[in-house]
Amino acid sequence: MMTTDQPPILIRGGRVLDPGRGIDFLGDVLIEGGRIAAIDERVESPEAEVFDASGLLVCPGLVDIHCHLREPGFEYKETIETGTRAAARGGFATVCCMPNTDPPADSRATVEYVQRTAAAMGAVRVLPIGCVSRGRQGHELAEMGELAEAGVIGFSDDGSPVADAALMRRALEYVSAFGLPIINHCEETSLSTEGVMHEGWVAVRLGLHGQPPAAEEAMVARDISLAELTRSHVHIAHVSTRGSVELIRHAKERGAPVTAEVTPHHLTLTHEAVAFTAEGANTLAYDTNAKVNPPLRARDDLDACLEGLRDGTIDAIATDHAPHEAVSKMCEFDQAAFGISGFETALAACLSLVHEGKLDLPTLIYRMTAAPVAALGLERFVPGLGSLAVGAPGDVTVIDQEALWVVEPEAFASKGKNTPLAGRTLRGRAVVTMVEGRVSFCAEAAIAS
Amino acid sequence: MSSNAVERRGKSSAAAVREPPGEPLPSAVGAWQRRHVLDLDDFSSEEISLVLETADAMKEVLAREVPRVPTLRGTTIITLFYESSTRTRSSFELAGKVLGADVINVSAAASSVQKGESIIDTTRTLQSVGADILVMRHKASGAPYLAARHADISVINAGDGWHAHPTQALLDLYTMRSRLGDVRGRKVVIVGDITHSRVARSNLWGLTAMGAQVVLCAPPTLFPVGLDPADRDGCDELALPPVRFDTNLDRAIEGADVVMALRMQLERQQSGLVPSLREYSRLYQVNSQRMARAAPGVFVMHPGPMNEGIEISMEVAHGARSLVEEQVANGVAVRMALLYLLARRR
Amino acid sequence: MAESIIMSEQDMRRVILRIAHEIVENNRGCQDLVFVGMRTRGVPLAERLAAAIRDFEGEEVSVGALDIGLYRDDLPARGVEVRIKPSELPTDIADKRVVLVDDVLYTGRSIRAALDALIDYGRPQRIQLAVLVDRGHRELPIRADFVGKNIPTSHRDDVQVMLREIDGDDRVVITPVEGE
Predict the structure, then answer these.
(1) ipTM value of the model?
(2) Given pLDDT bands bounded at 50, 70 and 90, which one contains residue A449?
(3) Using DSSP, how many helices (H) and how many strands (E) does chain A show?
C-alpha cells in the first residue's frame, strides 16, 4: 500500500479538525511520502498538488472498528475489494473486519489471506480480527497466540456471541498475555431465539417474534463481570439498549476494563423503520432492509445510546457494515438475512445528529477517529492512526457537511444494496478519502476547484 | 331473514338509478378503492359496513335452492395456501364458485417453501397464468404484503403468521352484528393465546373501528410484550389501538356481551409457555360457570377448530349461546362480498 | 340546468291506475300474479300497483324486490360506489305470472339482468314488464308490455322518476345534459 513516490498533496483552507489532539482551526494539511508532513494555518509546498478545501472539513481518516468484508467464502455478498471501495466512499481510511468468513479467521492462513488480498486490492487499510473460538463454534479456544503473531488486532466470534461463560472467561484470561481485546456480540440466544426484531409494540403490530433488551443486557452484565474478574479487556460490540449503556457506564465508573461501540443506525433509526416507510404510509412495510442484529430499538434506547456517546460511556461509532445479496432480503421477513450495508451512509447518518443539534461535530469526529483507535489500542499497530499528527499515516478524510445527495443503493460500490435509507436525501458526505497519502476516493464534484 | 335489509334505506342515493347498469354513480364516500385486503388496520367503519351489507345480499344468494350467480364469470381466483386449512380454504373456494368465478387451489407444500424467491416468483407466475385475485395463507407474517407489492393482482390475506386474518374478523363482526345489532359500546372479551393469534389482532382492529370495547385475556406468558400502555413508547392510537387486558378471566368476563375463545395450540405446553393444558383450562376455559358472570344475552364465538374441553367446554361449544356454526356459514357470505368488491374493471 | 316536469303527481296516479287495470285485463284476473319490483324505485311502484288492484279487484297480489347488482353484464370500475342488497321474493315464482316493474326503460340491459336473476329463482309461467316511462334507445330486443308514458329522449338527456316513498314527492323530470 506504500508508495513514497506519490506527489505531495496540500489540502488547503479547510476546517482542520482533529479532536483527539484538540485541533480545530482553518488551515492546511500537507501529506507527503505517505505521511502527514505538516499541519498549520498556512503551509507552503511548491511541488504539491493543491486541493481547495474551503468550506469543507479536514479530518483524520475515519476508522471503522467493526465491519464485515465477507471474503473469503461469501464473495457473492461482498469482496475485500468492493467492501473497501465502499468504505473509501464512506470516508473510512481504516476498517477492522470480522472473522465470520468461510473459512473463519481462526488460523494464520486465513488471516494472511485477508491481509494479502487487502494489500493487493484493498482501497483502504484493513486490520483483521481473529476468532475467539475454533471455527467460531464456541467450544474451544482458537489458537489466539498464532493469530496474534499474524497480526490480528483483537478477537471476536461476531455474528455470534461467545455463549459459554466459561469459555469467555478462559478467552479473557488467555488474551491478557497479548494485551488484545475480546470484542463480544452480546446476545443471550436462549432469550432472543427466533426474534427477528425488537420486542415491542411494532413487533406486536407486525405479528413478528421479538428480541427483548434483556437478551443483550444479560450478556453485557456477564462480560463486565468477567472483565473485572480477569482484569482483561472486553469491548462490547454494537450496543443498542438503555440497560446496556447504563451497565457500561457503571462499570467504567468502577474502572472496569470495558469499552463499547454503537452503530449509526442505532443512533438514528428505531424499530418503527421496520413497519413504516415514508411512502406507502398506509401499508405495513415489513422492510427487510431494516432487519439487523441487534435490532433497531425503541426511541428511549436510541436516546440512551446518544447520551452514552456524548458522555463517553460509548467510546466509538462503528458501522457493522453487513452486506447481503439481494435475494436474501427479498423474501418474507422471518427468512431474511440480518444486516445493513452501512459504509456509504454512515457518515451522513451521523452528521444528521449534528445538524439536529443532538451531537456536536468535534465529538462526532472524535468518536470516528481517535476514540476507536484508543478503544482497541490500535496505536501500537499503526502509530498515529486516527490523528493528523506530523508523522502519522497520511490518512485524511475531507467532508462536505452540506452536500445533499440521494441514497441510490444501485450506485453503491458495495455489493450489498441492503439499506433502509434507499431513496432518502441525506446531507453531508465524504468528498475525499486518502489512505497513506494516496487518494482512495474522490467525489467528482470535489475536483471542480 | 334479511327483512331488515329491505328496511335499511334512508341513505340511498338521491340520484336516480340510471340505465345502463354500468353507468357510474357519482363517486361518494364509501366507494371501494382497495385493491387488496391485507388487514383491517386501515379499514374505516364505512368500509367495514359496506362489506357487511354486501354480505347480506350474498347470504340471500346462498339461501336459494340453486345458490349461483353469474357475477364473477370470467374472473379467476387462485387460493395459495402455504399452511393447510380445511375451513378457510373451502370457504373461499365455495364463495368464488357461487359467484361464478373459476377457482383454482394451489397447495405449496411446506417443504418447498424456499427463501421467498418463491413467494414473489409464484405470485408473478400465477399472475401470468391469468389469476385476477390471489387468496394467500402463509406462516410468515408479512408474506401477503410481499406478494401485493410485487405483482399486479389483488391479494386477499387468508392468514399470515401471527399478524392478521381480516376475513375471519369480518365474518366475526358480521355474526356479532346479526345477533346483537350494532356492536358499538358492546363488551367483547377475547381469551386465549393472544401472542400468537392473528384472529385476535384483526378482531381488535375491526371491533375498535366499529366502536366496540375489547378486552384481551390471557396468561401473562401469552400476552405480547408491547401491548401494555407502559410499553407504548410514544406509539399513537393509529399505530396500535389502546387495548384493555386482564390476566384473570373471571374478572374480565363480567358483563361481556360476546366471549371469543381462541384455539390453544397444543405445542404451547411443549414450549413451556403454559405449565400444562390442564392448568390452562382450569384458569381460562370458557365454561358455563364463567359464562354466568357475563351479560345475560352473552354469545360465545370461536374461530375453530375447537379443542373442546381445553379452551372451551363441550356444553358451551354446542350450547344455545354458541355462534360457532353461524360463523362458518357467514364466512362464505363475507368472503363472497370481498371477492365481489375486489373484482373490478381496472 | 333546465329541468322540465313531464309527469306530475296527478299524471302518475292516473297512469299507475291505468297500468294496474291493463295488467289485470291482460292476465284475465289475478290468479298466480306476482309483482317483482326492480330496486330501487321499481319496488314502491310495484307496491302501488298491488295497492290499486287491492282497491278495485279486492285481490291480494304478492310483491317482491329484485336487486340485479349480481347480474350486471360488466363489473363496476374500481372506485365506483356499488351497493347491492338482498333480493326478496316472498313466494316461489315457479309457474307464476311474474310482472317485472321498473321506473324507466332505456337500453334494456337492466331488464336482461333481471330476467337472468328471475330464472335463477325458478321457472315462471310467463314474465311481463311494466314500466312507468319508456325513453327509447333500446340496445337489446326487449319491450315493455305495459307502459305509463312514452317519452322521446336523446342520449344526453337525464330522465328521473321521483317517488314520495323515496324522494319525498311524485314527479318525473327530464333534464337535458349539456354535452362536453
Answers:
(1) 0.86
(2) very low
(3) 15, 17
Q: In whole angstroms, what is the distance from residue C90 CA to residue C36 CA?
A: 10
**What span, in angstroms and rounded, lies between the C-alpha atoms of B32 and B142?**
23
Looking at residue B72, its pLDDT comes to 94
C85 contacts B57? CB cut-off 8 A: yes
**B129 and B194 inside one domain:** no
Q: Is some CB atom of chain C closer than 8 A to the CB atom of B113?
A: no
Bridge pairing between strands A197-198 and A182-184? unpaired
B146 and A286 within 8 Å at the Cβ level: the answer is yes
CATH number of the domain to which B107 belongs: 3.40.50.1370
CB A394 within 8 A of CB A436: yes
Residue C161, pLDDT > 60, answer yes
**Domain shared by B93 and B197, yes or no:** no
Per the structure, how many domains does chain B have?
A: 2
| Pairwise CB contact (< 8 Å): A208 & B162 | yes
Q: Which of C83, C110, C167 sits opposite B19 (nearest CB)?
A: C110
In this structure, are B151 and B230 located in the same domain?
no
For the domain spanning C10-71+85-153, the CATH number is 3.40.50.2020
**Residue among B12, B24, B66 minimizing CB distance to C80:** B24
Tell me, yes or no, if A28 is annotated catalytic.
no
Output A427 or A4, whichever has higher pLDDT.
A427
- Rounded CA-CA distance B209/A260 in Å is 46
CB contact under 8 A, B25 and C81: yes
Condensed to tens digits (0 to 9), the pLDDT of residues B187-234 reads 999 999 999 999 999 999 999 999 999 999 999 999 888 777 666 776
In whole angstroms, how large is the CA radius of gyration of chain A?
21
Delimit the domains of chain C by residue range.
10-71+85-153
pLDDT of residue B106: 86
> Which residue out of A320, A334, A360, A400 is catalytically annotated?
A320
Q: Which of A190, A201, A287 to mutate to test the interface with B (most CBs of B within 10 A)?
A: A201
Query: What are the structural domains, with CATH classification, of chain A?
Result: 61-380 (3.20.20.140)
Contacts of residue B142 in chain A, CB cutoff 8 Å? 206-208, 284, 286, 332-333
> Across the interface, do B2 and C86 touch by the CB < 8 Å criterion?
yes
B6 in any annotated domain? no
| A210 contacts on B by Cβ (under 8 Å) | 225-226
Tell me whether residues A206 and B163 touch, CB distance under 8 A: yes
User: B-chain residues within 8 Å CB-CB of C77?
Assistant: 24, 344-346
Q: Which of B117, B140, B226 sits opposite A203 (nearest CB)?
A: B226
Average pLDDT, integer, range A282-303 = 94
Is residue B22 situated within a structural domain? Answer: no
Whether B137 and B150 map to the same domain: the answer is yes
pLDDT tens, position by position, C100-154: 999 999 999 999 999 999 999 999 999 999 999 999 999 999 999 999 999 999 9
Mean pLDDT of chain A: 95
Which residue segment(s) compose the domain that B170 sits in? 166-327
The DSSP output letter for C88 is B
User: In chain A, which residue's Cα lies nearest the Cα of B198?
Assistant: A207
Residues B70 and B126 in one domain: yes
Residues of A in contact with B138 (CB under 8 A): 332
What pLDDT score does B270 carry? 74
How does residue B322 score in pLDDT terms, banded at 50, 70 and 90? very high
- Return all residues near C162 (Cβ < 8 A) that are at least 6 apart: B16, C168, C169, C170, C171, C172, C173
- Whether residue B123 is found in the same domain as residue B183: no
Instruction: Work out the minimum CA distance from B200 to partner chain C, whole angstroms.
Output: 29
Find the Cα–Cα–Cα–Cα dihedral A401, A405, A407, A409, rounded to 10°.
-110
- Subunits close to A (at least 3 CB pairs below 8 A): B
B143 and B199 part of one domain: no
Which of these, B325, B331, B300, B339, lies nearest to B88 by C-alpha position?
B331
- The Cα B130–Cα A382 span in angstroms is 64
pTM of the entire structure?
Answer: 0.88
Residues B190 and B309 in one domain: yes
